[in-house]
# Entry
Amino acid sequence: MRPYWRPAANSSGSALGAVPAASGSERAGLVESIRPSLQAAGPVRLAMGLVVAAALVAAGYRMIYGLGAATHLSDAWPWGLWKILGVVAGIPLAAGAFVVAAWVHVFRHHGYESLARPAVLAGFIGYLTAIASLFVDIGQPHRIWHPIVMWQPHSVLFEVCWCVILYTTVLALEFSPVAFEKLGWQRAGRIVQHFIAPIAGAGATLCVLHQSSLGSLFLIAPSRMSPMWYTPWLPLIFFVSSVAAGLAVLQLLAWVADRVYGQPVAESIRAGLARGLTGVLVLYLAVRLGDWSLRGTGPWRTSWGLEGALAWAELVMGIVLPLALLLAAGVRAGGQEWRVAAAAFTAAGVLLHRLDTGLTSMREAAWLPYVPSAIEWLVMAGMVCAGILAYDWVARRLPLFEHGREAAR
Amino acid sequence: MAVSQPERVVGRRRLLRWGAALAGAAAARAATGAAGRTARAASVVDGQAWAMLVDITQCVGCRSCVFACQEENGWKGDPEGQQLDGERWTAVREVAVKGSEEPRFVRTECFHCLQPSCADACIVGALRKTAEGPVVYDAGKCIGCRYCMIACPFQVPRYQWDQTFPLVAKCDFCADRIAAGKQPACSEACPTGATLFGRRDELVEQARARLASEPDRYVQHIYGLEEAGGTSWLFITDVPFEQLGFARVGTTPPPQRTRAWMQRVPAIAVGIAGLLAAAHVIEGRGGNHA
Ligand code: SF4
Ligand code: SF4
# Structure
């Protein structure tokens, strides 16, 4: 068995025989230099594995004893952590995949190709995680296939469900050439490559639909939600914020590729991501401010309470601060740290907005409090860890990063 | 064939009536806009569908309706409970009222909306408004996503949290009994007539008559006449509805908001796909770039 810490760059690169000697030895040197940090990451992986194992036990408990025993969900809180954090907040974090796939294959910005594989892999794992989250959350998990045959075209959830099924298939297709490359199935890989533009285009279309529809889900519940977050603009806000979160996660993935896998991403790409995020954040800011002022609400209109504080945090921590960091990154040396920080704040801000929309805003209407149970947290943490471990596992075995290098060369 | 004079007059009158009806319908449609087009099972003639009138002034809090409901459906939950739950599809809440010695007793259960949010939300179509009036639930379809619980403006649907594979629980207006020509168990059991079963338009008349007969006593509002687009259950009271815990839901049927979105989805899909295809072609002309 391979040592758990050995990076794929070493083995799969040579296994493919595609890496020229010079860059190979260069890479070996790099690997030597980051080996200590990889070794240090060993216990982290182990710990994550333990969390996954514990989460599996917890999920088993939920499957045997039911939602009531395992969660703190109630008639007052029919949707909790698994639905809101695992699906409504989780899916925008995976939006980077459609953004970069469309940018590279539809808009033909092939310079970003080196980011496409990590992004698509992360997206694929993200969607599988969301589906897993849904699976433990619904009361009749064995009927999860029902929407495929029982159609209800007025239901926003039905539309989201179909888009997610189809888009997960698209992601699998988009990623398949990497697996084919590893397996040496050149022909299969070429066939997919031949149709990659329409595939990426279909994927982007599905994403525009369901990213916005995740917001439309809540349009049916106006009387249940706080006006701070209930707005007819929910679909627009959800779509714009998903692109922001997607770009932010791409920047974080680029950072991980460098720091964890020793595969630095070209400065032009990181700068491009930062430019893109700046533009989208400006748009997002305009949409949020416009929505609040047109409806005569907004954090500045409410007294300081939990709602006001959280809305301020969304605005300042999630939009204004990252914008400031990005602008600072543009004029300073060593801007990459600033960009990564901006990305982290952006992602956190979008996450917070989703939690507020799905949970905080329903506080008034609920007659009971809701604090997620230990099992809910554990299962959630297990899914996040499983996603990270899966990404790591694939990254160390499949040609995730080399491809772009070759294309760019 | 010659047509006699009176008949011709009748014919002309009928024509006029038709004309007036058509004009009225057109005006109503123009006035309601999208509302007229949305969210209604084609076969539901709301006025003729079955409905219920609850006169809160007449309820003495005996909970006969709750007992009858639980017996009808085979549940064993505590009938005294103030809240709905998986085994209590209707509950009677005791509400203390300012400036009155007597408390009020308020029945809650599914309102059987004319344009039910739960049915539009349901991902698999497990909930459905029938032409007879009840909003019924097909337990065999339900996946347990609980979107119906989020969507219901009155927060009615409950979940069997104590079950491993729980189902949604809510009043079904005794749809089986209605189909068999009987009235629901609760209205049959009500000793005071506080819960009255009948055709919706007749009950609306009845309610209006009661409000008019004692204008000083009754709050001049029929809850359910227009709330959330109208419901099959109607309520009248002598204490403001807000004080009794009735939700403020507005008159717009909530499904109208999601339907407006769902109607746009195909156009958005085609538009985005078209834009992407155009971009692909245009970008192709410039050759590859970073
Ligand atoms: S009251 Fe709620 S559960 Fe009953 S029909 Fe209306 S939306 Fe559905
Ligand atoms: S919980 Fe069941 S009835 Fe309610 S929306 Fe989901 S599938 Fe439909």
